[in-house]
Design a protein that fits this description.
This is (d)CMP kinase. InterPro entries: P-loop_NTPase. By secondary structure, the protein is of the alpha/beta class. It has one domain. Helix content is 39%, strand content 23%. A five-stranded parallel beta sheet has the order 2-5-1-6-7. Strands 3-4 form a two-stranded antiparallel sheet. Strand 3 and strand 4 form a beta hairpin. The longest helix has 15 residues. It is globular and about 35 Å long. The C terminus is likely disordered.
Length: 159
């Protein structure tokens, strides 16, 4: 089975995916390791479909040097891919060709998501709008997921 976890920045995808991967002992690929830079959402989705799902390998993106990094390999019949762009017509078709698929989309209010994302990585702030434009296009063509999860109010101000 392949699980595709998508949704906008700060919606809780990574937290959920890490917990699921740990619980099931399945390999997890984060799209953050795949995007070729801040303008690479669509390219990252293509890499997920063609290389990760199709061939079980991908080049990790070196964000510090803004270049491709080493190859990483994904083994086994089960896989979790999480991140914006994980669920596209191409990734869904590639995953279905391998067997069972579950697609999940997380979402929530932008102000909460932004606070969570910036708390996690303050260097993201100058790129928020640039990335959000790519997200908007992605979500306009994204297939309907099997499950949608809407993030509620944070428990405390420390989101």
């Amino acid at each position: 089975m392949i699980v595709l976890i998508d949704g906008p920045s700060g919606a809780g995808k990574t937290t959920f995916a890490k917990g699921l991967a740990s619980l099931l002992a399945w390999p997890l690929v984060s799209m953050d390791d795949v995007y070729p830079g801040w303008d690479g959402l669509a390219a990252g989705s293509a890499i997920a479909a063609e290389q990760i799902i199709g061939h079980g390998r991908y080049r990790c993106w070196d964000w510090h040097n803004n270049t491709q990094g080493p190859w990483r390999y994904v083994q086994g019949e089960h896989l979790i891919i999480e991140g914006v762009g994980a669920l596209t017509p191409a990734t869904l078709a590639a995953a279905r060709a391998k067997g069972e698929v579950l697609s999940v989309v997380f979402d929530g209010p932008e102000q909460w998501r932004k606070a969570r994302a910036i708390a996690r990585d303050p260097e993201y702030l100058p790129f928020w709008q640039r990335w959000a434009k790519q997200e908007q296009f992605h979500f306009s063509v994204m297939p309907t997921p099997d499950v949608r999860w809407w993030m509620g109010a944070p428990v405390s101000e420390n989101v």
